[in-house]
């Protein structure tokens, strides 16, 4: 897919100061393709995991993949002036992938060393990018009018120039840097949603962004140097070491929760490819002992069972679990949403997948 020519932001030589409270994951390849994960979080506010944003540096080219909440802060913490970035490619329009754009549009124009963008923003994205560009121009008007009146900025520097990416393919090809959009499956109402394949100097980096298990992504991520795949079903908790003797010094143990056969299939492929190493399986009772928040889910058991019953499904026996007593302490609105959600899952055929098999010792 082609794009109009435009002038990239001038790269500025700047003092790189690493903020003591922020540690970015940086991947550097020879010739030189540099990938910095500035944010890997989700919409839940978390000061330790700001929203999705990935900085790509290749020769004279600088591109961001997504620009979620906090990306401006992470750029500053990593030592970059905001004017360093003027080109952003958006994977899809969940808020955690683009909400930082409006901060960059305004703050980036301020003519100070921390910012100092000298031109417009160039934003690539699926259909809907027109709404973002036009909405940003309206939303930034009060700030723009004040700064223009004070002779601080050129108003055009707050303008977003948009490029629509309505199908997968090459979305950026400049200065030896080639970025290819890969269509993925992030849900029925989020189409298209993209992963990205980044090529430069003989190296290849692929970032899945948000997706379900997707054969198209797997096919286009073969043989890459670095593959980053999101996973929302993982968890980390303190004191959760599989080795009880090490729990006192444990800084955090990662777990992957597999609930269905499809989820297990994805995990098995990751194991076969060497991306994961399975060290121990744990049961729900053990999970309860190290993840107290998991116990809270028991309060919704009765509402979920009512949903199964309403759809004519078999309801598990719950002797000694007291689901009705727990239900009495559940907020009625939450109980209703759990009931409705269970019925919706049954209607969609998502309540009959086979349970996962044991993998340990295979």
Total number of domains:
2
CATH topology of the largest domain: Metallo-beta-lactamase, Chain A
- What fraction of the residues are assigned to beta strands by DSSP? 15-25%
> Helix tally?
11
Low-confidence blocks of residues:
1-22, 234-242, 358-362
The CATH H-level homologous superfamily of the largest domain: Ribonuclease Z/Hydroxyacylglutathione hydrolase-like
Distance between the termini: 46 Å
SS elements, strand count: 14
> What does the average pLDDT come to?
79
The biggest sheet, with number of strands, parallel, antiparallel or mixed sense and barrel status, is: 7 strands, mixed
Structural class designation = alpha/beta
Helix content: 25-40%
Q: Rough shape?
A: globular
Oligomer: single chain
If classified by CATH, what would the architecture of the largest domain be?
Answer: 4-Layer Sandwich
Quick summary:
With 362 residues, this protein is an alpha/beta fold. Helices cover 26% and strands 21% of the residues.
Question: Would you write up a description of this structure?
Answer:
The structure is a single chain. This protein is an alpha/beta fold. It folds into two domains: 25-228, Metallo-beta-lactamase, Chain A, CATH 3.60.15; 235-347, no CATH class. The chain is built from eleven helices and 14 strands. It has helices spanning 71-77, 101-107, 129-139, 141-149, 215-220, 261-272, 284-290, 292-295, 301-310, 323-327, 332-347; strands spanning 25-29, 33-39, 53-58, 61-67, 87-89, 121-125, 160-164, 169-174, 177-184, 193-200, 203-207, 226-228, 234-237, 253-256. A seven-stranded mixed beta sheet has the order 1-2-3-4-5-6-7. Strand 11, helix 5 (215-220) and strand 12 form a beta-alpha-beta unit. The protein is globular. The model is unreliable at 1-22, 234-242 and 358-362 (pLDDT under 50).
């Amino acid at each position: 897919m082609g794009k109009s020519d435009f002038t990239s932001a001038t790269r500025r030589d700047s003092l790189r100061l690493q903020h003591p409270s922020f540690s970015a994951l940086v991947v550097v390849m020879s010739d030189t393709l540099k990938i910095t994960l500035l944010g890997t979080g989700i919409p839940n506010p978390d000061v330790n995991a700001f929203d999705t944003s990935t900085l790509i540096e290749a020769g004279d080219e600088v591109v961001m993949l997504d620009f979620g909440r906090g990306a401006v802060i992470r750029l500053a913490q990593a030592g970059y002036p905001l004017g360093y970035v003027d080109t952003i490619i958006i994977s899809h329009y969940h808020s955690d992938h683009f909400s930082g754009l409006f901060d960059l549009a305004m703050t980036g124009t301020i003519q100070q060393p921390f910012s100092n963008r000298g031109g417009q923003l160039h934003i690539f994205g699926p259909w809907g990018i027109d709404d973002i560009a036009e909405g940003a121009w309206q939303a930034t008007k009060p700030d723009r009018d004040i700064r223009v009146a004070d002779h601080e900025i050129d108003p055009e520097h707050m303008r977003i120039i948009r490029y629509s990416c309505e199908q997968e393919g090459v979305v950026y090809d400049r200065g030896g840097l080639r970025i290819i959009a890969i269509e993925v499956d992030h849900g029925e109402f989020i189409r298209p949603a993209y992963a990205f394949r980044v090529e430069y100097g003989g190296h290849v980096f692929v970032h899945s962004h948000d997706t379900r298990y997707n054969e198209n992504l797997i096919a286009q991520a073969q043989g890459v140097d670095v593959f980053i795949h999101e996973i929302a079903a993982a968890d980390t908790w303190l004191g959760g070491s599989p080795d009880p003797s090490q729990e006192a010094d444990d800084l955090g143990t990662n777990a992957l929760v597999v609930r269905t056969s499809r989820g297990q299939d994805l995990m098995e492929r990751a194991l076969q490819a060497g991306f994961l190493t399975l060290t121990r399986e744990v049961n729900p009772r053990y999970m309860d002992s190290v993840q107290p928040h998991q116990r809270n889910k028991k309060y919704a058991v009765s509402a979920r069972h009512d949903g199964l019953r309403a759809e004519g499904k078999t309801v598990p026996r719950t002797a000694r679990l007291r689901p009705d007593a727990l239900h009495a302490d559940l907020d009625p609105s939450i109980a209703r949403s759990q009931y409705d959600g269970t019925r919706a899952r049954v209607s969609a055929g998502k309540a009959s997948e086979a349970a996962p098999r044991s993998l340990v010792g295979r």
